[in-house]
Records
---
Amino acid sequence: MLSLLRIEIYKISRRPRTYIAFIAITAIVGIFQFAFKADGQSYMNLMLQSVPENFEIDLSKTINGYFMCYIILNTLLIQVPILIALIAGDAISGEANMGTLRLLLTKPVSRTGVILTKFAASVIFTILLLVWMAFMALFVSLLLFGAEDMLIFRVRGDESQIMQIASDDILWRYFAAFGYAAVALTVIAALAMLLSVFAENSIGPIIATVCIVIVCTIISNINVPIIDKNIKPWLFTSYLVGWKGFFYIATTDDGETIKGSLENWPAIRNSLSILLAHVIILVGITVAVFNKKDILS
Amino acid sequence: MPVIEVSNLSKQFKDVLAVDNLSFSVGEGDVYGFLGQNGAGKSTNIRMLLTLVKPTSGHIHIFSKDIAKERHEILQQTGAIIEKPDLYKYLSAFDNLSIFARLSGLKLPRHDIMEKLEAVGLSARSESKVKTFSQGMKQRLGIAVALVHNPRLVILDEPANGLDPQGIADIRGLILKLREQGKTVVISSHLLSEIEQVATRMIIIHKGKKIIEGSVTELLDPSETIVRIQTTDNTYARQKINSSEFSGLLQDDLDEIRLKMNKTEVPLLAQKLSGWGVGILSIQPRHSLEDYFISLTNNESHAELVKN
């Protein structure tokens, strides 16, 4: 199994398309950092339009490395599923298309082993992509913009809220957020792999994965009570941005933030459980379908 | 003890019965030819032997092991090329062979892999990506991949497809070499001439059903040869043959002269015709099985008649 995993990782690492995701993240993050370095103040002025005048903010320290990373993650983590689908959607269908799937399965390897190792390789790719994103969005931003307390702008119902997190209380939140994002993106990898089993070229499963994510995201954002109650709780897209929960800090009755606290840990735990359940179900279906599949390609 | 024993094997794809209650066995050291027109069910059969396709019913035993239960053990001793040898095009020949060796349970040192590439004439291109290879080179690498773990059983599904004459000759040479080494080979083809040259036993299938099975020497008995003769004057030639020792062998045909005879007597017949002053345009000995097979391929109604 370990040997099979090593082979999978080697194959992924030798495919040029693997690096598209890393190049895309580098480019997008770089553009963000350049734009904020050049004219971040205009963005901040726009963000602070709704803040009451008596609310004092030291604008010179607002744009810092931690804040930059938050802004980048907010934008980028919605697009990353497409990059994950590029690899996971190709896992089985790409081999079927090349004709190597039949050769692979004439070797003494189990079909379950093939799926699990391909899935594990996709998860490793996802984690590496997030590590790269963390390096680019967090550590490079810290180098460029420095480390200060972070302001979080949050919309809750009809009201806007600004929270301040102390600079020595942020880093662990980012590690936790990236960990959460890894689980959320693993659902995308599992979905793309399931679709990959049914196809004999990579384009179909990649497009289908992106379409499903878009449709489910739209449904997750529709505010209709019947959908809120019956559909949203079961959609993985309702939990994709759950990583933000690590930046929502608990406050005292006086409105003071409590260092090292989370506003709603049970909600984050619940989100993680639902995402993991999606992974288990999707991988389970993939294994079952692939074990029964006739390889005719 | 047969290496492969297949009993009452069937495969239904939705509304198509691709393999219909097929039974056959392959002995140790046999080169077993699977013959049938395109769509006859050869590839489905081969894929069921390799566990790529699940049978709807029936049993397959290889090395006396049930393929449904002991797949891993069976595939450890089996090598295969399914149609064209598709490999990882973005990897080098060395990487491909190394990967498939590992998948076969072997961790070969570099010099062993280079030796195997040398054996198929690819050592000089070991670091070149497969996408830069010609079809013949890919085929040779495919052979190296199939044989990397020195399997007891080699299964080749239409291995000559898409190859030039040299590639086809190479495949033939490989099969004969495997036969000499005492390996069991299963080869499928839609060309009788291809099977005839290498196989020791063969089966002809049509629409998923077995039409005939036996040893090649039995099925291609030289006494069953049909000799077609074209001359400058067929009436005169027919007259002379009728008055010779070949008269009983002559078959009625208005357009051409046909004799059912032993293949070994063809040179004598040619000599006689020449002696009678007959101008010979062509003499074509063809086995009756070939006619039969071609009739299956070309004439569906005839095939139905044979089956019924």
---
Amino acid sequence: MANLEELGEVIKTDVLVIGGGLSGLWAANSARDFVENVLIVDKGPPMGYAGEGYFSGGNIQALPPGEDVDEYVKDVISLGDGLYEQDLLEKIFKQSWDRIEDFRGMGVEFEEEEDGTLKYIAQRGLKHNACYIGKPSGAGGRDMMLGLAREAKRLGVKYLSRVYITDLIKQDDAVVGAVGFNIRDGQFYILKAKTVILATGGCSFRGGYEDTHMCYGEGIELAFNAGAELFNLEFVTMWIIPTKFRWEGVTFLLPLGAVFVNEQGDSFMEKYSPIFKSNCDYNFIARAMAIEAKQGRYPFYLDCSGMKPADKELMTPAEGWTALMYKQLLEAGIRPFEERQEWTATPWTNSFVHSDHEMRTIVPGLFVAGVLRNVDPGIYFGGWSICKTAAFGRWAGESAGNYVKSRSMLAKINERQIRELKQATYTPLGKIGIDPEEVLRELQSAIFPVLILKNEENLSRALKKVEVMKNETLPRAGAPDLHRLAKLKGIGSMVLVAELILRASLMRTESRASHYREDYPDRDDKNWLKWIMANQRDGKLSFRFEPVPLAKYKHKTWRCYSDNFNFLK
Amino acid sequence: MITEINSAKCTGCGICVDLCNMDVLRLDTSNGKAYIAYHEDCMTCFECALSCPEGAVEVSFVPEFTPPSIVFPQGGKNNG
């Protein structure tokens, strides 16, 4: 196909992994057990340095040896008010300890108890929950990434950095590759693959939690455009952050005694949940903050004075970026463990792609790994992402590897299709128009005020704004250079994700897990123990409902976490 | 946010440009030194400061830009 080569650089591979973060590396390494050629493509830096996991503390959820998996699964089901694939949770927990052993084999360290067993801290006030603690404090994610990258290099995994993927290529309904461009030299790439694994993380709308700033949601758009199903769109996950600096590891500060207080020093969370107080899921903290603020009571502070000295020491950043930042804070007279600091809420990285439990989407040849595969109705607990990225990455690599066995040849790619995609990709380049940063801020202003306290009126209003952005603002935006061209594409993904979140939020006329409707504040198990599934058919958005298959599940009843909160007082 | 690349110290080795997740940094082809090309996209990850062999990069813990508040009511005290 000489013509194809005239359009851009053509690279052939068995398995193409889009995204070089934790799950992408797990997926690539796992796929190498089955196939010779595995290529990772990432819009960011070289192997080992891409994605949000690098900046995390490296804390990981796992089922402690000898513990009953059912108890751990049941506590997570309660956290999500029952809206869970129970068998998937069990599958994740059952292999979780092995991933800790894998990481230790790569030289990654975890905090230990005096007797040499690994130390863990239960999350969100749950009884059966174990988040193991990355070591050194504040740099565990870096060590995990570099360990996985060493393994990938040993296995001969290939890597293409700074290439932004704009479209998946389909042939006869199957995904057979992807196209994109280098954000520095503009080179167009045509990546021909027998199968594609999406491992791009979620969408943070570039909120205040800066670890997630590279999470533009492009993988959600790629999956959606290819025909994959999305779900749990109405369940956005909120995060809590300091307003004046960055922080990693609040997930341990709360169970170790840190509390949220208002200006007067009152622990306002006690009013909303006498049982959990501040040690609860962040979405409930964000909701309490929003309600307090609406009544004029803000700002909010995190007070660590109740923590034991040994715990403060354990949580003091020891290495990497957190340690450098901590040193600066002390130099500036900011002492996070000694004086209360102002905190607020922000969207975390959210994703909504659905797959089966072997990570297959409904689109042949398209697999999904990492946090891009949604599991939770918005709730979160420390270490869960790193646990899921390891599980899903390995499973996706294995499934994609097996899929390749049935595809002996690379598909022939339609040259005209590639030509059209290329033309569309570069259309905004050099165009005079609205700056992508301006579009981003407009989007944030439209949706941030309606993500926590939702009602029909504010959701509809935000949806109208987002539709205007999609139909009028985005087409008028310009990209003076390649960097901004990639950014504009990413913001296009964000706009799509925002629209889908708002539409699904309008549909769910109840409150459950992270989804809170002021006009429907109660949980409605009779009508809403079901998922809203969305996908694109013949270019049109379509929704369907999928009931939670309780008849086939092990756990018929559960406690509901949200029963421990009252937001109506 | 990144505040400065000291051009007297910068040797143009390109490590910071290579490692930046957000593509904030580029090499100036005229003088061979790194510069801040897209300040607004800095995620305050400190990777450039940590990786610079010459200590030429300064990053401050103060965030570059504060997104619109998700919690505080409009017109109220922002989180900046």
